[in-house]
Write a structure and sequence with these properties.
single chain; alpha+beta; Nucleotide Exchange Factor Grpe, Chain A, domain 2; three-stranded antiparallel beta sheet; three-stranded mixed beta sheet
Length: 189
């Protein structure tokens, strides 16, 4: 049989040996004996911190909303004015075409020179705006990302190579605007 144990109240520091109460951190005075001013001060301090954190949260939320709104405005402006540079480059081309149509009694050679000049202006506008041609040659490897196959035809080129280019494609800054239309080689028959 075990020896009878004294009823110990774990909340009471008197029930513990003196050195054990200090070891486990039991306060000298019971909570009822602590001054209410200390508790009120702790409560006020905690409420102040909560108010400070709430204010910081509201400010952070407002900042995120401002950043989101500015980003939406930037995207809208980019869409609206993104073609401005390209349009400015095309204005001289249009002017040249209108001037050519306004001229009367032109020779075929004059028309040809005017068209060549206008084509150079258009090419300059394309270059300035990073627009490049996709013009595969017969025998080039077929690239499904840049070429659109219309049909397979027998040809002297290896199977899967471009057999014939039907229409040029175009890139804008490495993004395909229009794929090149091609006929793909089915190999020699």
């Amino acid at each position: 049989m075990s020896a009878p144990q004294d009823d110990l109240d774990p909340k009471s520091a008197d029930a513990l040996p003196e050195d054990l109460g200090e070891t486990i951190g039991v306060p000298d005075a019971s909570p009822a004996e602590q001054p209410t001013e200390d508790l009120a001060a702790l409560l006020a301090e905690a409420q102040a911190k909560i108010g400070e954190y709430h204010d910081q949260l509201l400010r952070a939320h407002a900042e995120v909303e401002n950043i989101r709104r500015r980003a939406q405005d930037d995207v809208a402006k980019a869409r609206k004015f993104g073609t401005e540079s390209f349009a400015e480059s095309l204005i001289p081309v249009r002017d040249s075409l209108e001037a050519a149509l306004a001229q009367e009694n032109q020779t075929t050679e004059d028309w040809r020179q005017g068209v060549e000049s206008t084509l150079r202006q258009l090419n300059t506008a394309f270059e300035r705006n990073q627009m490049r041609e996709i013009a595969p040659q017969p025998g080039d490897v077929f690239d499904p990302h840049r070429h659109q196959a219309i049909s397979n035809v027998p040809s002297p080129h290896p199977q899967g190579a471009v057999a014939q280019s039907l229409q040029k494609g175009y890139l804008i800054a490495d993004r395909v605007l229009r794929p090149a239309l091609v006929m793909v080689s089915a190999g020699q028959s």
